């Protein structure tokens, strides 16, 4: 069974530029998560989708971050404009149902450096 | 939301040694997972263990839900065990939102 796929693996941009990340979850998984992991810290949830609807985006900086999950499968996360503090690894995860007792499976992440 | 504290923050072991990592929660959880993040950044799910004890090879985990802590045991450590170990908890009604600790960075020396 294929795992969670993400691209690109690395991205370097200058502040005020825009950037987009892509995620393809495990086949059949209804729930998709985007996490931000700053160096030296644990991942922090940015947004959670159940199929193509948003379940939780309370920690998403909506003035600059946006995400969508068209057709309930792939998802993109966009940052526009980027700030220096956005430098982090962006992790995508998926789970079968998305309930509070569900196991989450993570992709390899996209390492973003904002100069 | 809940607070997750992990200890120790750093751990250096000689190959073959055993270790215990601890995770404390500020409130009750009904979802508790342990992850290993390898040096390339990949997060691997080790255990889903909201209560009880599980074992998988040289790794085992125990969660005492009533006392709000979980332990991860690594026996006969190998250099490939190096990386950061995270625990993460979720509460009932949280829709799957996991709160992560800051991790324990493990270095196993040959």
List its salient traits:
heterodimer, A: 115 residues, mainly beta, seven-stranded mixed β-sheet, four-stranded antiparallel β-sheet, 48% strand, globular, B: 110 residues, six-stranded mixed β-sheet, five-stranded antiparallel β-sheet, 11 strands
How far is the N terminus from the C terminus of chain A?
37 Å
Write down how many β-strands of chain A occur, each being a DSSP E stretch of 2 or more residues. Answer: 11
Q: What's the helix-strand series of chain B?
A: EEEEEEEEEEE
- State the helix count of chain B: 0
Share of helical residues of chain B: under 10%
Count of alpha and pi helical runs of chain A:
0
Specify Rg of chain A, calculated over alpha carbons: 13 Å
Average predicted local confidence, pLDDT of chain B: 93
H/E series of chain A: EEEEEEEEEEE
Distance between the termini of chain B: 40 Å
* Biggest chain pair interface: A-B, 28 and 28 residues
Structural class of chain A: mainly beta
User: What general outline of chain A do the C-alpha atoms trace?
Assistant: globular
The major sheet of chain A is characterized as: 7 strands, mixed
Approximate strand percentage of chain A:
over 45%
Briefly say what this structure is.
The complex is a heterodimer of chains A (115) and B (110). In chain A, 0% of the residues lie in helices and 48% in strands.
Describe the structure.
The complex is a heterodimer of chains A (115) and B (110). Chain A is mostly beta strands and 115 residues long. Chain A is built from no helices and 11 strands. Chain A has strands at residues 5-7, 10-13, 19-24, 31-37, 44-50, 53-56, 65-68, 75-79, 88-95, 105-106, 110-114. In chain A, strands 2, 4, 5, 6, 9, 10 and 11 form a 7-stranded mixed β-sheet that branches. A 4-stranded antiparallel β-sheet of chain A has the order 1-3-8-7, with no helix packed on it. Chain A starts with a strand and ends with a strand. The model of chain A has no long low-confidence stretch (mean pLDDT 93). By secondary structure, chain B is mainly beta. Helix content of chain B is 0%, strand content 56%. Chain B is built from no helices and 11 strands. Chain B has strands spanning 4-7, 10-14, 19-25, 31-37, 43-48, 52-56, 59-64, 69-74, 83-90, 99-100, 104-109. In chain B, strands 2, 4, 5, 9, 10 and 11 form a 6-stranded mixed β-sheet that branches. Chain B has a 5-stranded antiparallel β-sheet with strand order 1-3-8-7-6, with no helix packed on it. In chain B, a hairpin with a 2-residue loop joins strand 6 (52-56) and strand 7. Chain B is globular. Chain B starts with a strand and ends with a strand. Classes of the chains: A mainly beta (115), B mainly beta (110).
């Amino acid at each position: 069974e294929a795992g969670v796929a993400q691209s690109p693996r690395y991205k370097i941009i200058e502040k005020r530029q825009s950037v987009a990340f892509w995620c393809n979850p495990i086949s059949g998984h209804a729930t998709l998560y985007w996490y931000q992991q700053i160096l030296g810290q644990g991942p922090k949830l940015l947004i959670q989708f159940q199929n193509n609807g948003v379940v939780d985006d309370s920690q998403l900086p909506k003035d600059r971050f946006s995400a969508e999950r068209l057709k309930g499968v792939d998802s993109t996360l966009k940052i526009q404009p980027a700030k220096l503090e956005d430098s982090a690894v962006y992790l995508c995860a998926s789970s079968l149902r998305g309930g509070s007792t569900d196991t989450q499976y993570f992709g390899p992440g996209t390492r973003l450096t904002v100069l | 939301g809940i607070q997750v504290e992990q200890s120790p923050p750093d751990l250096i072991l000689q190959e073959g040694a055993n270790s215990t990592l601890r995770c404390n929660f500020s409130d009750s959880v009904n979802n508790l997972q342990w992850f290993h993040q390898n040096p390339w950044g990949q997060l691997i799910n080790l255990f889903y263990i909201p209560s009880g004890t599980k074992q998988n090879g040289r790794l085992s985990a125990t969660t005492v839900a009533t006392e709000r802590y979980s332990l991860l045991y690594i026996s006969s450590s190998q250099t490939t065990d190096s990386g950061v170990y995270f625990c993460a908890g979720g509460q009932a009604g949280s829709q799957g939102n996991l709160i992560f600790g800051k991790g324990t960075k493990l270095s196993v020396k040959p």
